[in-house]
Amino acid sequence: MNVLLVEDEDLLRELVLECLETAGHVVQAFPSPELALRRSSGQSFDLLITDLVMPGLSGAELADRVRLAQPRCRVIFMSGFTDKPPHAGSGVFLRKPFTPLELSRAVDEALGETPTPRPSG
Question: Could you give the 3-state DSSP secondary structure of residue 13?
Fold first, then answer.
């Protein structure tokens, strides 16, 4: 699966990138929506994972632009500032901070796959 990751916090972007690549996904990661749009133009993505609150374009504006070009691209919005995605039904919401397992579940949910089972105990 091809993933476009946009997160302005370097450490979080690196951690999410590592989790996704470990799970076998091909990821292009960028620190800003503008850079992501410039460098990924013409490429196809199955999933956009984006922070909601960033300088410049917001994650919601980025998602709108990506979906114009790629209507089938699914979206995961991440935020530590709000508890809801920007538009009802617009994507999966992942509240910061989150664990690698919560990230994996959000990816499964966004792609409509069976969620990763919860550990017992």
Answer: helix
pLDDT for 116 beyond 70:
no
Supply the DSSP string of 23-69, one letter for each residue.
TT-EEEEESSHHHHHHHHTT---SEEEEESS-SSS-HHHHHHHHHHH
Q: What CATH number does domain 2-110 carry, 3.40.50.150, 3.40.1380.20, 3.40.50.10710, 3.40.50.2300?
A: 3.40.50.2300
Contact 22, 43 (CB under 8 A): no
89: left (phi over 0), alpha (psi -120 to 50) or beta: left
Residues 6+ away with beta carbon under 8 Å from 90:
60, 63, 75, 77
CA geometry: angle 2, 38, 9, nearest 5 deg: 70
Mean per-residue pLDDT, 54-63: 92
pTM for the structure as a whole: 0.89
Q: Is the peptide bond before 55 cis (omega within 30 degrees of 0)?
A: no
